[in-house]
Amino acid sequence: MNGLFIGRFQPFHLGHLDAIRFGLSKVENLWIGIGSSNKSNEKRNPFTADERKDMILSSLESSILKRVQVYYIPDIGDHEKWTHHVDSIVPKYDIVFSNDDFTTSLYQKRGVKVIAVPLKDREKFSGTNIRERIVKGEGWAEFVPRGANKVLLKIDAKKRLSKIL
Predict the structure, then answer these.
(1) Distance of CA 64 to CAs 28, 53, 138, Å?
(2) What is the pLDDT of residue 120?
(3) pTM metric for this prediction
(4) Residue 158's closest CA among 127, 129, 126, 132?
(5) Region for residue 9 given its phi and psi (left: phi exceeds 0; alpha: psi -120 to 50; beta: otherwise)
(6) Where are the beta strands (DSSP E) in the chain?
């Protein structure tokens, strides 16, 4: 059985890592969709799809890497067609993992099973909070996996975010 987990991963954090592990506890393989993959260098989407993919893959253990594949999911501006667009990009899946009410309703309308992912301390583990902490120079590294931390330092996330936020 295959599952699908879509997120923007701006940046990839420990809450996302927990969600991937949760998904993999329910399915054999997990397709990870990088949402808004066609957007970058803007307030809500500061990192490129390639940077986000690098954050994800460098944060996963080899045992997990064997069971996941990452796909780019661009925004298309048409909510009713979006899930079908996703289907044209990723292989067949049986379950969608999501906490987003709108995504859940779109998939449920199509009869696709959606499982809510337990959220890890949503206030701390939110991309918005982490991006703001990076800009302010406040402790943020403890909220992201080591691999994502290395990518954020390599691309000088603080400099980029300071220009955008």
Answers:
(1) 10, 15, 31
(2) 76
(3) 0.95
(4) 132
(5) left
(6) 2-7, 29-35, 68-73, 95-97, 113-115
Q: What is the pLDDT of residue 93?
A: 98
Mean pLDDT, residues 47-64: 97
Q: Is the pLDDT of residue 73 over 90?
A: yes
Q: What is d(CA 152, CA 140) in angstroms, rounded to the nearest whole number?
A: 11
Question: 102: number of CA atoms within 13 Å, CB side?
Answer: 6
Q: In angstroms, what CA-CA distances link 13 with 17, 28, 63, 91, 104? A: 6, 23, 19, 25, 22
- Among 66, 73, 58, which residue's Cα sits nearest to residue 12? 58
| Average pLDDT across the chain, whole number | 95
The pair of three-digit structure tokens given for residue 78, joined into one six-digit string: 């048409």
Q: Is the dihedral of CA 165, 122, 141, 25 positive or negative?
A: negative
Share of the chain above pLDDT 70, in %: 100
DSSP-assigned beta bridge partners for residue 34: 7, 72
Sorted by sequence, the CB contacts under 8 Å of residue 163 that are 6+ apart come out as none
In one letter, which amino acid is 52? R
